[in-house]
Amino acid sequence: MRDIHVKPVSYYPSENLEYPMMTEPQLITPNELFYVRSHFEYPFVDVHQWSLSIEGMVVQPLQLTYQDLLKMNLVTLPATLECAGNKRSLWDKKAQGVQFGLGAISHAEWRGVRLKDVLEQAGISNQAKEVVFQGLDSGQRPDMEEQVFFERSLPLEKALHPDTLLALEMNGQPLPFKHGFPLRLLVPGYYAMASVKWLHRIRVVQEAFKGPFQSIDYVILEKPNDYPHAKPVSSVVINSSIASPMEEEEIAIGQHVICGYAWAGEHSVSKVEVSTDGGKHWREAQLLDPDIAYSWRRWSLDWRVDQPGVYTLMAKATNELGESQPMKAKWNSKGYQNDAVHVVHVHVADAKLTENLLHGKA
Ligand SMILES: Nc1nc2c(c(=O)[nH]1)N[C@H]1C(S)=C(S)[C@@H](COP(=O)(O)O)O[C@H]1N2
Ligand SMILES: [Mo]
Predict the structure, then answer these.
(1) Atom 20 in ligand 1: which residue has the minimum CA distance?
(2) Domain end: 232, 258, 281, which one?
(3) What residues make up the domain containing 316?
(4) Is residue 104 part of a domain?
(5) pTM of the model
(6) 251 and 328 in one domain?
(7) Ligand 1 within 6 A of CB of 100
(8) What is the pLDDT of residues 244-263, one digit of tens each?
(9) What CATH number has the domain bearing residue 316?
(10) Which 8-state DSSP code applies to residue 58?
(11) Lower Cβ count inside 10 Å, N or C end of the chain?
(12) Ligand 1 pocket check: which of 37, 153, 185, 218 to mutate, most ligand atoms within 8 Å of Cβ?
């Protein structure tokens, strides 16, 4: 064996992985391709030692094992998860945070216990206001002295919603480790920071939770550090992305399919319009998937192009309330919720280049 000296890594960075938008559009994201957003090093988890505690403003605190949860009433729910920082790299003016492209979004079929069932078993006291969820992962933030856990809260109403789950399975498999094994919260229709992974502790509290992932991050700041006017990020807004063709792609003269995804959080996507001339004219795309609650819908539009040149493609989705994506998103210093009409520039080759493209020579 060769003598290779590898310098030990003293710090395992947090892992962030995008779903590859350039793959064939699929309704359900395979677990191996599902995007990953993790703020800290992966935690150590031994499922035999692990349990879920429910404490705070409850009548009867509970401690549930993995087996206890598996024995409860399990329900299945498809839901799209989108990171609030999805498309952060697309802002004209740069915003701080992970520079995600189009792929901080994926879709899976989740199976688990209704959070409501567990909370009702513990019995919520009358003074309760919010429910706080703690993951097993913790670490240092650049802006704080002490080590902190990844923790988030939900208002009681969303916590008690029958679709808010304690998810044990993802696409028919036990939750993969990177997605929160053995248990994650699944808050459909909310940006995914709410869906706490490696969940081990639930606290019912009587005051607004102010942890850093609730009050420093995941708030809309119209000006940097304007915390007095911070607004929390919660429900996913109407949005869409063009998956193909890709930005700056070179394509042949002729027949093409423009396709992508549209999603609307707690609402439904009712239509997607596409422009191939920079927004002068719009045509309605075909929706390829049925309208399933909390689920993205693939869409496509056939496009014939006969003249070489640069074309500006745009996609704009509208929800069932009639709300459409804006041409320009409202900038905020942390770059959340980029819901602007998605713009893609494509280069349509001239006749000679088209020949080469079609014969794989380009
Ligand atoms: N415990 C824990 N839960 C977490 C996070 C985390 O870092 N730690 N990241 C959140 C964020 S910001 C997102 S976008 C989603 C990502 O979920 P995924 O990695 O399964 O795609 O998990 C959320 N839940
Ligand atoms: Mo996120």
Answers:
(1) 179
(2) 232
(3) 239-358
(4) yes
(5) 0.95
(6) yes
(7) no
(8) 999 999 999 999 999 999 99
(9) 2.60.40.650
(10) B
(11) N
(12) 37
